[in-house]
């Protein structure tokens, strides 16, 4: 009788290979900017590297981020939309693209955050997954404060997708944890966190 509840619906954004049927505890550690150009590394409890994020110290361009898998292969290219449209817009807009053979290929999600840059309690940071449906303006939202390491990514239906929090006595800006619920795309969650990090002027910013 125990099998009824084991069917987890996968919600891939980057790829279903990054969706787990179990909840995952990921540890995020900031890289020292002097040595490695900044960014952060994501490990599991056994210290195995699952993802890493390169910021402008490595890429050499601000407003651009690269998410890599545990093997160091680039899986997501994220950039902030620039230009006149950006200057006139109420929102900062970010786009995440899948990487194919080292080149950005198809867009998989977009993120809007209100100016001035705040991860406010109003849940104003909104994420849309491609392809966009006409009926919906957003698919996920970020609630709480990323700067204080107390925020969550929630689905449109209100389910918690991932919870970001400080962990233990050593925890803080440089070490925190992310709990991703079963079925959700961990690479996508890390992509959203990379943008929050950059918006808050942290490890991925030069």
Automatic annotation (TrEMBL):
SUPFAM superfamilies: Tubby C-terminal domain-like. Belongs to the LOR family. It holds the Pfam family LOR. The gene is LOC100829769. It comes from the Eukaryota. Gene3D superfamilies: LURP1-related (2.40.160.200). This is Protein LURP-one-related 6.
